[in-house]
Amino acid sequence: MSVEHYENFPVASWLCPPALRPAVVALYGYARTADDLADEGEATPAQRLADLRAYRDELHAVAGGAAPSARWAPVFGALGPVIARHRLPLGLLDDLLDAFMQDTHTTRYADRAALLDYCRRSADPVGRLLLHLYGVDDPSALRRSDAICSALQLINFWQDLGIDTRRGRLYLPLADCARHGVDPDAVLAGADSPALRGLVADVLGWARALMHEGAPLVHQVPGRAGWELRLVVQGGLRIADKIAAGGHATLLRRPRLRPFDALPMLWRALRMRAGAPWPGGPRVLQ
Question: This protein's superkingdom (predicted)?
């Protein structure tokens, strides 16, 4: 599976506990398909919304024990047994769909609180579903998971600034645009500027702070899953580094991870010891 195709969902890599890989793959397929319904192809916003509502109806039917219909049989044929076996919280799966539905009609966000509310439904459920699979339900772990997932979503927004604006979407909060003297319509028209780059630097710092807030979660998730989480955290921070190294000009160029980024990510992941400073972040506490 490609991390780039759905950046907020950790890949079911060799670090994922083998017993949980089918569940992670099923959840990925569910989220990926819903995201495609919201974004891909030539459907109108009304048709996208109708498709997502039908997708939600299918989710609830399968969760209730019904056989999947032909339209999304591969998705729900895999997900249905996972919901039953692991007693997945249906509300988290609903939250993801709610965010995708919002994408069909909301293209701008007034302030950071509004954007975080979107992340609460578009990104945070992913982390909470994975923690549920790992049997981690401590309130502090859930809060840290939310911080990591929101940070990943925000970093992805700044990384994909040029892509999203070509789709008519602006995830830069309007209050921050006003504070930096950036015209949202100009950004949507593809106009780069020093003010815009300063704005991206500002909101990137916000995302980094959220990631640092959530990073101690890596010491609460056991075994191989904890090591995968370390790499997820460091992957997000590595993208943030690339955005900064590119002068915060992501309206023009999309930075991406390359194979040679694996070594510094691994080195930083190894340095994330409880109670000790680690490269790219503050002191990590348990």
Answer: Bacteria
